[in-house]
Amino acid sequence: MKLFWAALSGVLCTAHISFAEPRVTYNAYGMPGLVDMPSAQSAPDAELSFSVSQSGKSLRNTLTFQIAPRLTGAFRYSSIERPQGTLYDRSFDLRYRLLDETQLRPAVAVGLQDFIGTGVYSGEYVAASKTFGPVVATAGIGWGRLGSHNSFDNPLGVISSRFDTRDAGFTGTGGRIESARWFRGPAAFFAGFAWPVTDKVTLKAEYSSDAYTQEVAYGHFEHRSPFNLALDYQIKPTVQLTAYAQHGDEIGILASLTSNPKHSPGGATRDPAPMPVLPRAKAQVAPAGWSEIPSLRSALITALTPVLRQDGIQLIGLSLTDTIAIATVENHRYQSQPQAIGHVARLLSNVLPASVDTIAVVPMVKGIAGSQVIFPRDALEAHEATATGASDMRAATIVTDAAAVDHRAAAAEGVFPQFSWSFGPDVSASLFDPDNPVALSLGAKLTAEWVPARGVYVTGTLRQNIVDNYTSTPRYSDSIITHVRSDSTFYDRANGPVLQDLTANYRFRPGTNLYGRFSAGYLERMYGGLSAELLWKPVDSKFGLGFEVSAVRQRSFDGLGFAPLTVTTAGLGAPRSYDTITGHLSGYYAFDNGLHAQVDVGRYLAKDWGMSVQLNREFNNGWKVGAYATLTDISFDDFGEGSFDKGIFMEIPTSWSIGRQSRVKRSVVIRPLLRDGGAKLDLSDRLYDLVRDTHVPQLEAQWGRFWR
Known about the structure:
By secondary structure, the protein is mostly beta strands. It has eleven helices and 31 strands.
């Protein structure tokens, strides 16, 4: 401890003191704050942070996301040494900034710490932060863990006597929202400040309202003082390293890495310059009825196909009259559909006869035509080089449903059949097993796709494990309900090449605003069977409604069929096979600021009935960050540890990191626990996610890239 104070004195004495701008730094819980205490500050909108802090015998790993400018969320996975063994704890935080800082008023935020979990870190708070020159001062009041040192009677007791007491301990198997304890029991004050003494160094000091009762009881340290001190060093804008002294008896360290989905680490994608629009010459004349001349139509298709292919766009079909051209295309390169549509429109303007005054582009995704984007050719010629060209072009553009478009008209030669494949390394992870919290597997994966006709897709994935750090003995599930997911560890450890999926899909348009899908085969790693889906989604609406039903059987662990599964451990398991019918009615809604909501109601794999709610934020570059929760008629006690299914997920576009266009994304799902209640079929390419990129709300969000 003395060495820490000596080092701190040396830094402050030798540092070039300047009045640096206040910046947001992270505390030992991975949230914007002081040392342990929270503040009312928020990180920049959409900032994503991963932090690791070590203090005594506690290790915390926290993923934090600035969900919206005022709303911050975090998921934390901690290991806490106890006399009876290590506790691996999962917890969630939420904070909302009620008031912004003004010249006279501080920023004010209210927060819930560990509001879903075992309650090891459970507490609530109201914090106020005010800037005084370079210094940000914070004061607040806490409850629960944050109201345990030098506490006093709850001031909310004047509202109701129910606020005076707080139940001790936590019920059931953890993971429940213990709202009956929020802002209950004794309260305590905390305060502190953050002073950026240089552009890279920030000094933070606080008076903590946490008595660290559990840590003291476990023998981690002695709580000698409520004062904590920290020194942040900003190695670079995305990396923070912190050393802190706590409660007069402990030194800890914190490292945090930040990123922002809004901003690519390599800057904007390096796109080749698009082909310019070629205005029509006034004297240019096309013969009447030219569109009926087969040789002219064939010549146009022959000219368009290779140029579009070089741009990562496939020409599926071309419908022509003397005045209207409709090109059906599939974009294989650009994250933004308006950018791909703009490239097609430019090219068409260069090759179409002058009599064509209306151009329509029909973007298809996996055999589904989602919309028809129609614009006057005059608008293309007039707005390409103007300062407001994108908005002017959008005003002149009409987007309609494409169900009636004949995609087979004048189809380009050789479009079908199609075959594509990819081969490369693959990393899979299994998280939060107490015996092996981070289990990783490195393997090789072969993916192939055959498209014999429009809308028909046959896809398969073969994976071979190469090396892993799996424990020698897999963890046996203690679930008392049907093991529809909790035996996943046996699937992960299968030897030899594993056929992860092999599916035949047919996607089609049954009518205006309607989309359909039939699937058959090995639908995912654990289940095979039949699946059907119908989606109603008007092209200009933010709302969609879908229905999906599947008849499935559980696959064998080795992936070679539907043979009975055997789990052998004392008292558990017997040869068995399992089949079920599962399905959901789903509602979708696109809010502003990239927020999307999905609600599913129906029957899950364990034959339980219930509802799932999903909320995510999507960015124009393809990033997606979200969370979900599912409640069914399986009781919390029967569900087991965690009480109900919940988790967070991310989709990371490859183009964001490599700096060039690609539609490939990497999906990451973080589930605190993988149990059997509320389990859904893990299907890829559900209809809503396919078609909404081509509908008005998403097109308008990305329309600024039309001329890129």
